[in-house]
Design brief:
There is one protein chain. This protein has a single domain, classed as Farnesyl Diphosphate Synthase, CATH 1.10.600.10. It is mainly alpha-helical.
Amino acid sequence: MAKGIEAIKKPIEGELKEFERHFRNAIRSQVSLLDKITYYIVRRKGKQVRPMFVFLSAKLCGEVNPSSFNAASLVELLHTASLVHDDVVDDSFERRGFFSINALWKNKIAVLVGDYLLSQGLLLALHNKEFKLLEIVSAAVKEMSEGELLQMEKARKLDIEEKVYYDIIRGKTASLISAACGAGAASVTEDEEVVQRMRLFGEKIGMSFQIRDDLFDFGTDDVGKPLGIDIKEKKLTLPLIYALQQAQASDKRYILSLIRKHHNRDDKVREVIDFVRESRGLEYAKEKMYTFRKEAFDLLDHFPGGPVKQALEELVVFVTDRKK
């Protein structure tokens, strides 16, 4: 059973407290409107999963130092910028139970706030001459944008295959978790092999994390009522892709027709969800999720045991066994 997030934080409790101060300083502005918005962002912070990956990866590979705090702030700045922009793109008015920035201050301001956070991240890296960290995280931002755009392109055509799905989630989700682990390692060691191993470790976690997220859309038994949000947005996720692969040509045409023409009708969305559940799409996706998780654990086998490695393993279990 997955441990709670507070228990997993124990080996890096001090670092996370210090990080909060570091992050607040990184987003402070002389413009009062911007300062008010960034204060709101800090107040509604999430579980801090990405900074946790940065600090645990750093501690696994060496000694946490000022560069590790720069890595965590850089990752969190760019992650927050991407969330602000995502809410504008998705026309979403809620994030983590709070109103989104665009819901409170409208799209134009939200886009500019996202730009500000992005530029603060870049400047933080440049001012501290953290060129390796900047390279790692900038590559992730590029991949995130490409992943999202590839998903939008495929949503129009509804022609996605399993391999393309992995390309999408590798970019839009796994790249930033990969960057968090890679940046954490790069902040304490120049051993490129170790850094690459941690980046790959983060990528495997990110793949499992996104598959878990996709399963929620179908109302997995431990979550409850089906939502079908991805179906309404015409996103083909792994459970649906597998179900379509197993279906007869006529059934496949029918289901794709429902998604294409009736994705806003709750009864038709329910029909698609039932089709996926009956086709064992959820079981298949879970198998793939656990395969990626095992590959992540295998990469950790290269490192010595101890509380930090154990916390990393527990964090991996937490993000793949989470209920929301």
